[in-house]
Amino acid sequence: MKKLLTAAVLLAAGLVAYSQGTIGTVNFNNRTASGVDAKIVDASGAGLSGTDWFAQLYFAPGASAAESSLTAVALPPVDFRTGLAAGYVRVGTAGARELAGVTAGGDATVQIRAWNAAAGATYEAASAAANGIFGKSNLINVKTGGAGAPPGPPTDLVGLQGFAVNPVVPEPTTVALGLLGAGLLFLRRRK
Prior knowledge:
alpha+beta, 12 strands, 24% helix, three-stranded mixed beta sheet, elongated
C-alpha cells in the first residue's frame, strides 16, 4: 500500500512539475473560429496570395514588451493561401507555435510580420532591401496556451488587426537630391 501511495504522489508531483515547466503556445493563424479575422493585404487592398509572400510570427516574453525586443519564432516563415482565402497565412491545422522562454499560461507580446519573398528570406532582409515590400501587425498581449495536464490548446491571437504591406519609401533627402539633380539637368539642357 505504501508503494502504491508513494507512486501516486510522485506521479502527481511529476504532472504538476511538467505542466508548470512546459512552453507557452499560440495559434499562428490570422483567421480562426474564435473570431480572429486579420487579413493581410497589399497596397491596393488585395489579399496577399501564394508563395510570393512570407509571414512570420514574432514574440517576446511578458506583457507589453517593446517591439524592438521581439524575435522570430524558431520555425521558417509561411506563405499565404490563395483564391478566396488570400490574405490569410497558410498554416492549416498545424498553427501551434511554441514561444521559447515563455512558460505555458505565461504572458507574451506577439506580432505578425509579412513581406515579399523576392526581397529576401527574412523580414529584416526585406525591410532593408531597395525593392522590399513589407508590413507588420499591431502588437498584442496574450496569455499563452499549453498549461495544464494534459497541456491545453494554443491561444488564438485575439486582438490581432489586419494590415497592409507597403513598398520601401525613399528618405525625403534622397527624393530632394533627385529632384535637384533633375532640375539642374533641365536647366543645363535649356542653355
